[in-house]
Amino acid sequence: MRIVLSLLFLLAPCVATMSQHTQPSVTDWQAAFQSWLSGDEASEQYGEETFELLSDLAEHPLNLNQTSRAQLEQLPFLSAQQVEELVAYMDRYRPLRSLGELQMIESLDRDTRRLLACFVIIGDTLVPQQTVKSVLSHLFQDGHATVTGTLRQPFYKRKGDDGKYLGYPQRHDLRLQFASRDQLKFGLTAAQDAGEPFFSNRNTLGYDHYSYYFQLRRMGRVEELNLGMYRVQLGMGLVMNSAFYLGKLASLQSLGRSTHALSAYTSRSMADYLQGAAATVRLFPDWRLTAFASWRPMDATLNSDGTVRTVDTDGYHRTETEMEKKNNTHETDLGFSLSWTPSHPGFSSHISLNAVYTSFDRSFVPYVKTASSAQSYRRYYPEGSSFFNASLDYGLTSARFAFSGETAFNREGALAAIHTASFRATDQLSLMLLHRYYDKRYTSFHARSFSEGSSTQNEHGLYLGANWRPSRKFLLQGYADYAHFPFLRYQVSAPSDALDAFLLARTYYNIGTLEARYRFRIRQRDNAKHTQVINRNEHRARLRFSCPVISSDAAGATSLTLQTQVDGVLINSHEQNSRGVMAGQQASFRYRSLRLQGYFGWFRSDDYDSRLYQYEPSVLYDFSFPAFYGHGIRYSFMARADWGRLTFLAKIGTTDYFDRAVISSGLQQIDGSSQTDLLLQVLLKVL
């Protein structure tokens, strides 16, 4: 490890002299993204998928002079009012001349403008073309192709590496993509997890997983066409949302807006994608139709009679048992959304009818009535081989007020409904109210919406949040969320309740930014004897200070930022009390085309329940939000350098434990107290 670190430090100054390129880097947008994450929600709520989408947008930013409302709605941090004001401003003043014009939009605060600037550019306006052939010719002339290769090299040996795993210990992936003017994008992603066979066993085509996609936008009445693998997001996610969800603080910041969007699936993950064709067509000026058809293989754990017990989404095929599950079940999806978006002066509205039909070539039997009572919570899981969901979603948005909602039902007639109302009382204060009701019998394979539980089912809750910015130098955010679960849940053998409260305060000084967060949660669960339901109280606090030691020069080419963060957690119940603390220091340095970033942290916790989370900037498409428990230290170093068409990224990170001689268990067991990984990435712009 010392040799690798020495090489990185020695090579960094040499690479820095190769280019004067000062385009925003991966660490720039990740720094803004980090301030937007909430506690441990990102690790629990599909953070990796969202990170990949934002990584792709950072490398292929939206051109504001050509961007549509649907494309802006892909950005999860924008509220309905912010999208509305952006669209209204661009319709009136387009073409925009610089990103500085964003300051003219009152609803965009300092943090939102900073984050938005990482994913948009100011480019040429769209040039009208007469034929499809001339449009495609123009797009290919203006486009650029990129090739990205990533390798993760572990400096340790897992138990499975001694012949138990079918492949090598390295994880690697390859991405090929062509993109042009926010209109055309196609490519291929090939991914291999550590331990999976490469050009052997059932992976005769090399990589374990391939994602391929083709996306075309703004071709006459066809607003978007997707072929290959893609994602669909309809309404507020009660019948279809294969995109992302980042948690309750993100919902507060976006003020619970609804979205209708198609997007290309570029991820290395094997979950939550559709495969086939999808398109959005403008039927009339105010009417749009989105339709999709998909057929895809998937992994599943089977019962003894060949029926499906659970769907496996981790995508691992490292052992013979895991490989036997690969693509053993197939799924067909057909769906549409018919939307009416009438034009009104000063506000916008929409109403959409959504429907999704899903079928499998195997029947689902998730709950066996003769099983032990420990599995009774599965009683209302999806059962059968074909499923149907439909919904009506609707919304009204003005500069001050936004209302959106969706009401859905499944084939049994069980209902699910979610409604949000947000109000900008002043330019400094906004309020949000959210209510949801998910029947215990409501099931949907592609639902992903606001919830306290792990699914859009068996929940009734009320959420109240507020954003208050009394001055340009102070921000206060908070929410309180109560949920009731009428039926059993995992580790809860009776109806139960949950409470979640969060408060964030951020102040901006001339020397830096100080942020404090506190989160209190009450979750109910069975006691050790399974005789009663008890409260489990969780307190999490964070204090973070970020200080620009060296501010950017006139060309924005040199800067140094230090960030100190302290986290604490306290878990208490009638049967358990555990504590944890973590303190860390992060430094970010930029000199021309060179970016360096280092982190050092110390942690100590009583057990896994009092684990602590730390977001770490990483290479493109690699989401790093690990959990730490026990006693130890974590340190990492990352470098990025741009040299003409080439971009080099490297990250090395080590976790040293002081309280154990063995890390993890099973085939993932490491006989040692230290774990070091090296990430290497090369990005080449071909055109």
Short note summarizing the structure:
The chain is built from ten helices and 31 strands.
Considering the chains and any ligands shown, give keywords for the structure:
687 residues, mainly beta, 24-stranded antiparallel barrel, two-stranded parallel sheet, 10 helices, 31 strands, 47% strand, globular, disordered N terminus
Percent of residues in helices comes to 10-25%
What's the alpha carbon Rg, rounded to whole Å?
A: 25 Å
Number of strands: 31
Beta fraction:
over 45%
Tally the helices. 10
Uncertain spans, ≥5 residues at pLDDT below 50? Answer: 1-26
Structural class: mainly beta
Mean pLDDT: 85
Distance between the termini: 36 Å
Can you summarize the main beta sheet? 24 strands, antiparallel, barrel
Please state the overall shape, judged from the principal axes of the Cα atoms: globular
Verbal overview:
By secondary structure, this protein is mainly beta. Helix content is 13%, strand content 47%. The strands form three sheets. The protein has a 24-stranded antiparallel beta barrel, surrounded by four helices. A two-stranded parallel ribbon has the order 1-2. β21 (496-508) and β22 (513-526) form a beta hairpin. The longest helix is centred in the N-terminal third of the chain and has 15 residues, at 2-16. Residues 1-26 have low confidence and may be disordered.
Lay out the secondary structure.
Elements: H1 2-16, H2 26-34, H3 41-44, H4 47-59, E1 62-63, H5 69-72, H6 80-93, H7 110-116, E2 120-121, H8 132-142, E3 144-154, E4 171-180, E5 184-192, E6 209-219, E7 222-233, H9 248-254, E8 261-264, E9 274-284, E10 287-302, E11 308-312, H10 320-325, E12 329-340, E13 343-344, E14 347-364, E15 384-398, E16 401-410, E17 415-424, E18 429-438, E19 459-471, E20 474-485, E21 496-508, E22 513-526, E23 533-550, E24 558-573, E25 577-591, E26 594-605, E27 612-613, E28 627-628, E29 631-643, E30 646-657, E31 674-685
Parallel strand pairs: 1-2
Antiparallel strand pairs: 3-4, 3-31, 4-5, 5-6, 6-7, 7-8, 7-9, 9-10, 10-11, 10-12, 12-14, 13-14, 14-15, 15-16, 16-17, 17-18, 18-19, 19-20, 20-21, 21-22, 22-23, 23-24, 24-25, 25-26, 26-29, 27-28, 29-30, 30-31
